Amino acid sequence: MWGTVHFSFLDALTPSGEIIPERTRLEILNHQGRAALLSQDLEKYATCLQEGLDRAIRLQSQKRYNEAVGIYQTIPASWATHSRII
């Protein structure tokens, strides 16, 4: 279901015609991960976590990496051993 996160709404230009920067897209992805956590959607959360960490590493963004790790540190204990998380 959540094999990849689709960002079609983010792929469009802003109303002013500017392209949305990748770091902003990554911030949104991390917020989607937090929302998935709050709604107890493990599959979506796991997808957002993996993609968020991968993109942060590619961008060399310590801030966004730390943000994703910070969200990870708040997951329920029962999720920590799930195969999608480890």
Radius of gyration from the alpha-carbon trace, in angstroms: 13 Å
Order of helices and strands: HHHH
- The chain-level mean pLDDT equals 85
Which ranges are low-confidence, i.e. pLDDT below 50, for 5 or more consecutive residues?
Answer: 4-12
Helix content: 55-70%
**Count of extended strands:** 0
The major sheet is characterized as: none
Structural class: mainly alpha
How far the N terminus sits from the C terminus, by CA atoms, comes to 19 Å
Number of contiguous helices: 4
- Principal-axes geometry comes out as globular
Residue fraction in strands: under 5%
Provide a descriptive summary of the structure in words.
The chain is an all-alpha fold and 86 residues long. The chain has a domain at 21-79. The protein is 58% helix and 0% strand. The chain has 4 helices and no strands. The protein has helices spanning 8-11, 22-38, 42-59, 62-72. The longest helix has 18 residues, at 42-59. Mean pLDDT is 85; it is low at 4-12.
